[in-house]
């Protein structure tokens, strides 16, 4: 049994950009509290990050450079990679069912072996705690096997946690199919007063995702502690309801106010430097457009968006991921489009998002509502136009548009039209029409600041979490 006084956590994110980023912040924060951290990436993720940070680039260092220099940073963070069970060239896009099945069934073998090796009593500093993403289906089994503490890290809001946790209720009430065209209200989930069925996560897009979420939310019930990237004051009823059953701490926003200065970049793709372009644009005049790292957008929507952006006449940076359609296609945009918008539109395959949205020239974010994008946008005081695509993004939109009122909805119907895109952009980028949204963002941003201050709830909960963890470990 590996129980030494020195707290040493093995930290493992789901192998996706939107999970790796917040987990790095968590690792740094825990290391600053005296924890030894062993941070695990899959070999595939490691190779992507390495490729994205060629030595000649001026971009921030890749993870292993920082994490393997504990003396320089003063933190003891070690970095290891493991196989996810697939060859490097294997297609891991979100619709790749074999890969998702592998995450459910095969990946745990590799983690099990690693934990077994690192938890041995005769190791120097054996690990005594497993901090794993809530979306894994096996952490409690491995933690139990090696008698180490299991912390589940939920990178998304409590609303989404509650909905996934009560999957059985959704099924019993017939909310298990596609919700897009439904208008009814769901009011039977504990801690969630009401949510439109169209805002429910699209978890049934295929049976493997459903299985993954179902199993993961069975496993999380056995965690010693659950921590989540949200804020008590912003989701009080939902969090209180979860806390009735579990030790659940809202410790968000896990990124701190100076997150844009972080010198570690974990981007899976090379970042296009937009700074010079932004420097030449007036304050608040640029709309940033991005659909995150995994979701696919259909070609019709891309075209309507392209036309809407042109008609809006605003400046924009549009992150058009190379695989946004789910296949490589070079000419997604209308012929001559880039030429036509070249003075006011910059289209890039990937960028350093925090650096872009924190630039004073950026005045709005048209987003798929990935949770990290929502949090980062609020930190930068930037209101949103929401165009959620899959999974939690629909429920995140509820928080953004209806609860906190820091954004507006783009698509009222299934598809989007260029006229809708134009008018919503005009509304958001006009300081008069979006005045209330901007005030609301400033307020939520202040809540972020306050919650991380000495007596703020997230700070208090984080310290409590650390104390309890140390006690459990010792
Ligand atoms: C998905 C889910 O939608 C999200 O809610 C969940 O928490 C993680 O998985 P993703 O599509 O990756 O997320 O979006 P998001 O959560 O917004 O995370 C994307 C991350 O990539 C952000 O931290 C963002 O700053 C970064 N990013 C995005 C870049 O650095 N550059 C880009 O060009 C685009």
UniProtKB/TrEMBL annotation:
Pfam families, per database record: UDPGT
Alphabetical UniProt keywords: Glycosyltransferase, Transferase
Coiled-coil parts of chain: none
GO molecular function: UDP-glucosyltransferase activity
EC number annotated for this UniProt entry: 2.4.1.-
InterPro entries according to UniProt: UDP_glucos_trans, UDP_glycos_trans_CS
Family: Belongs to the UDP-glycosyltransferase family.
PANTHER family: FLAVONOL 3-O-GLUCOSYLTRANSFERASE UGT76E12-RELATED, GLUCOSYL/GLUCURONOSYL TRANSFERASES
Protein name, UniProt field: Glycosyltransferase
Organism name: Solanum lycopersicum
């Amino acid at each position: 049994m590996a129980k030494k006084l020195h707290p040493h956590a093995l930290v493992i994110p789901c192998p996706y950009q939107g999970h790796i980023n917040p987990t790095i912040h968590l690792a740094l924060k825990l290391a600053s509290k005296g924890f030894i951290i062993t941070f695990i990436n899959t070999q595939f993720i490691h190779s992507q990050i390495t490729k994205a940070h060629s030595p000649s680039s001026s971009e921030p260092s890749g993870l292993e450079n920082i994490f393997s220099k504990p003396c320089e940073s003063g933190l003891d963070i070690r970095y290891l990679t493991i196989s996810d069970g697939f060859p490097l060239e294997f297609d891991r896009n979100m619709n790749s069912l074999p890969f998702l099945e592998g995450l459910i069934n095969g990946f745990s073998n590799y983690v099990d072996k690693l934990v077994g090796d690192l938890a041995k009593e005769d190791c120097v500093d054996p690990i005594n705690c497993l901090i794993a993403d809530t979306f894994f289906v096996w952490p409690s089994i491995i933690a139990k096997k090696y008698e180490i503490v299991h912390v589940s890290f939920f990178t998304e809001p409590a609303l989404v946690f509650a909905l996934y946790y009560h999957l059985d209720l959704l099924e019993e009430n017939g909310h298990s199919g596609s919700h897009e065209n439904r208008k009814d209200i769901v009011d039977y989930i504990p801690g969630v007063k009401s949510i439109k069925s169209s805002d429910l996560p699209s978890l049934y897009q295929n049976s493997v995702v459903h299985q993954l979420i179902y199993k993961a939310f069975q496993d999380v019930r056995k965690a010693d502690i659950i921590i989540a990237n949200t804020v008590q004051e912003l989701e009080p009823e939902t969090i209180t309801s979860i806390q009735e059953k579990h030790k659940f701490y809202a410790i968000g926003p896990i990124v701190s106010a100076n997150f844009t200065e972080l010198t570690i970049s974990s981007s899976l793709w090379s970042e296009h430097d937009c700074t010079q372009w932004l420097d030449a644009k007036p304050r608040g005049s640029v709309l940033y457009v991005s659909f995150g790292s995994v979701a696919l957008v259909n070609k019709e929507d891309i075209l309507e968006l392209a036309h809407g952006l042109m008609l809006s006449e605003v400046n924009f940076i549009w992150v058009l991921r190379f695989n946004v359609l789910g296949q490589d296609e070079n000419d997604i945009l209308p012929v001559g489009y880039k030429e036509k918008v070249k003075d006011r539109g910059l289209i890039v395959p990937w960028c350093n998002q925090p650096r872009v949205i924190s630039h004073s020239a950026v005045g709005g974010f048209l987003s798929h509502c990935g949770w990290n994008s929502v949090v980062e946008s609020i930190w930068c005081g930037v209101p949103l136009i929401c165009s959620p695509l899959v999974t939690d993004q629909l429920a995140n939109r509820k928080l953004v548009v209806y609860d906190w009122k820091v954004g507006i909805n783009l698509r009222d119907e299934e598809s989007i039209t260029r006229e809708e895109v134009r008018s919503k952009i005009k509304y958001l980028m006009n300081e008069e029409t979006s005045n209330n949204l901007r005030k609301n963002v400033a307020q939520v941003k202040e809540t972020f600041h306050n919650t991380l201050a000495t007596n703020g709830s997230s700070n208090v909960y984080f310290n409590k979490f650390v104390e309890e963890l140390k006690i459990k470990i010792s």
